[in-house]
Amino acid sequence: MAINSTTNEKTESEKEGISPRLWKPWKISDSGLKFLAIQESGIENGTFYDKKHKKKYPVTNGFILTCYLDQRDLPTIGMGHLVKPSDKISIGDSIPLEKAQEFASNDLASIEEKVNCGVKVPLHQYEYDSLVSIGYNCGTNGISKLLESINTKKYSEIPSAIEKYRAKGNSRRRKQEASLFFSGEYNANH
């Protein structure tokens, strides 16, 4: 038996007006993944030049599809995926774009979980994508204070906090992530 009732009380969303922001669970969008991949490689399509090792690698949709040594001399592929022995990939080996995207999805899982657990307020998809990009760059422990700031619901203050957040050596990236958070514009071009 269904029971219908009415109430004079307004829901929180009615009191505050309907927000176009979404509640969790969130998942990085295709645009967010592409933005992040370009942040990592520095280019959407073309050639990544490794200055330290003086080598060139092709880039597709922001992903470096050839295994190379990163700046710490660790084998890396795709969107900064650190190659493990279980990956069975050697320096110079290439992988298809789909495999690079699979690595990225797996590598992002802990970051996405951290953002989903840490954020207690609704977000636009692009705001979430911005936070995942920062988390991927800073690590799961590196974004805790920023997530606390998000929970104040002072959305207009967040972009300036992002620009200052752990920005040493990453000021351009933080500006782009702040712009994404504020405007929804996925511009990661260097």
TrEMBL record:
Q: Which UniProt keywords apply?
A: Antimicrobial, Bacteriolytic enzyme, Glycosidase, Hydrolase
Q: Does the keyword Cell cycle apply?
A: no
**EC number of this enzyme:** 3.2.1.17
**Similarity comment:** Belongs to the glycosyl hydrolase 24 family.
| Tagged with keyword RNA-binding | no
Kindly provide the name given to this protein in its UniProt entry.
Lysozyme
Organism field: Azospira inquinata
Task: Please give the biological process terms from Gene Ontology that the record holds.
Answer: cell wall macromolecule catabolic process; defense response to bacterium; killing of cells of another organism; peptidoglycan catabolic process
Write down the CDD domains for this protein, in alphabetical order.
Answer: lyz_endolysin_autolysin (cd00737)
